[in-house]
């Protein structure tokens, strides 16, 4: 009996595929029945990215799979809440080093509150984010002001913004370098060019094909299986087919500002603690918005979330 440590790279329904990262040699494994995970109400006990201890008698094969005996505590994980009211959630991926949020100024038009929600989710889970502004080749004079405003808003909040184009290859080398040695998650609304970028980073990958087969599978099992892919240039990516963006966690209204890094920083100087940064006198966040230090658009997203969470809880 041999024992080893590996990472879950795929869940096929009947078994998991594991590999000992950074090497790529996936082998089948099954979950030992008695393992209990602290995944709460999550529908899937193990997710792509989970690190496990396995035991095997000889080379693992489909007929003689390795047996997963332990699951390591997750450094972070991203969940998607189910659409029904069962309060169940699905862990999309665990132990992510970086999330790339792919956006476009136009084609499709950007929705800042949506991006801010994804950013809050990443902050809650402690996942570093890089914003990838794709389709740069399409932006001319009509978009120039919005492109520079976009950079200003997110860079002043502390997020790196990369200008790229999957079509011309602008910034693709930089993106490839940023992926090197990391497990990265790609997210973004459909049509922003997520699959095109993954293919530009590594032409041997074809995420769209995977997406079509996912859709096919969904019809039969109503389960989406996420998958980790190795990049030839180094690093691994987790593509999230069919998700508009990973789900937002439930936050208490007073917690929301903790996940806007620039507001958290400014709030140290608010006169009152806690401060909702709405009506309180001596609010340092409001002054920072007035002076332009905090982007008004981010503050507006914050107010929108506050309003929604507040209503939701009444
Ligand atoms: P996904 O839904 O996010 O995976 O988006 P796709 O990769 O399928 O791309 C959606 C559409 O945008 C396709 O028609 C792509 O050819 C196009 N597209 C993707 N990236 C770029 C880009 O950088 N520039 C231009 N002009 N078109 C792009
Ligand atoms: Zn305040």
Task: Walk me through what this model shows.
This protein has 314 residues and is of the alpha/beta class. It has three domains: 2-71, Beta Barrel (OB fold (Dihydrolipoamide Acetyltransferase, E2P)); 77-239, Rossmann fold (3-Layer(aba) Sandwich); 253-313, Ribonucleotide Reductase Protein R1, domain 1, CATH 1.10.40.50. Helices cover 29% and strands 22% of the residues. It has eight helices and 13 strands. It has helices at residues 112-125, 141-156, 172-179, 194-201, 207-221, 261-266, 284-290, 296-313; strands spanning 2-11, 16-19, 27-31, 51-56, 66-71, 77-81, 89-94, 98-103, 129-133, 161-163, 183-187, 227-230, 236-239. Strands 10-9-8-11-13-12 form a six-stranded mixed β-sheet, with helices on both faces. The chain has a five-stranded mixed β-barrel with strand order 1-2-3-5-4. Strands 6-7 form a two-stranded antiparallel ribbon. Helix 2 links the parallel strand 9 (129-133) and strand 10 (161-163). The protein is globular. Mean pLDDT is 86; it is low at 217-223. It binds guanosine-5'-diphosphate and zinc ion. Guanosine-5'-diphosphate binds next to helix 4.
Summarize the structure.
The chain is of the alpha/beta class. The protein has helices at residues 112-125, 141-156, 172-179, 194-201, 207-221, 261-266, 284-290, 296-313; strands at 2-11, 16-19, 27-31, 51-56, 66-71, 77-81, 89-94, 98-103, 129-133, 161-163, 183-187, 227-230, 236-239. It folds into three domains: 2-71, OB fold (Dihydrolipoamide Acetyltransferase, E2P); 77-239, Rossmann fold, CATH 3.40.50; 253-313, Orthogonal Bundle (Ribonucleotide Reductase Protein R1, domain 1), CATH 1.10.40.50.
């Amino acid at each position: 009996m041999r024992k080893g440590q590996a990472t879950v790279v795929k869940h096929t329904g009947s078994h998991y595929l594991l590999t000992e990262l950074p090497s790529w040699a996936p082998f089948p494994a099954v979950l030992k029945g008695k393992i209990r995970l602290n995944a709460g109400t999550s529908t899937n006990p193990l997710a792509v990215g989970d690190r496990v201890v396995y035991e095997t008698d000889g080379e693992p094969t489909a007929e003689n799979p390795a047996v997963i005996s332990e699951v390591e505590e997750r450094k972070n994980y991203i969940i998607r809440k189910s659409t029904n009211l069962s309060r169940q959630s699905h862990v999309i991926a665990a132990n992510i080093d970086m999330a790339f949020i792919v956006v476009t100024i136009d084609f499709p038009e950007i929705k800042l509150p949506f991006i801010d929600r994804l950013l809050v989710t990443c902050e809650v889970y402690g996942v570093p984010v890089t914003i990838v502004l794709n389709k740069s080749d399409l932006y001319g004079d009509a978009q120039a002001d919005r492109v520079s405003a976009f950079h200003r808003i997110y860079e002043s909040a502390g997020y790196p913004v990369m200008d790229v184009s999957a079509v011309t290859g602008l910034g693709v080398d930089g993106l490839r370098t940023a992926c090197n040695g990391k497990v990265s998650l790609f997210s973004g609304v459909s049509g922003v060019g997520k699959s095109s970028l993954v293919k530009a980073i590594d032409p041997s990958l074809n995420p769209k094909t995977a997406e079509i087969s996912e859709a096919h599978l969904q019809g039969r099992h109503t389960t989406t299986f996420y998958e980790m892919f190795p990049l030839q240039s180094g690093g691994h990516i987790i593509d999230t087919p069919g998700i508009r963006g990973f789900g937002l966690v439930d936050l208490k209204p007073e917690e929301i500002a903790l996940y806007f890094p620039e507001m958290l920083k400014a709030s140290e100087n608010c006169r009152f603690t806690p401060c909702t940064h709405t009506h309180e006198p001596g609010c340092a966040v409001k002054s920072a918005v007035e002076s332009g230090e905090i982007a008004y658009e981010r503050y507006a997203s914050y107010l929108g979330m506050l309003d929604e969470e507040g209503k939701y809880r009444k």
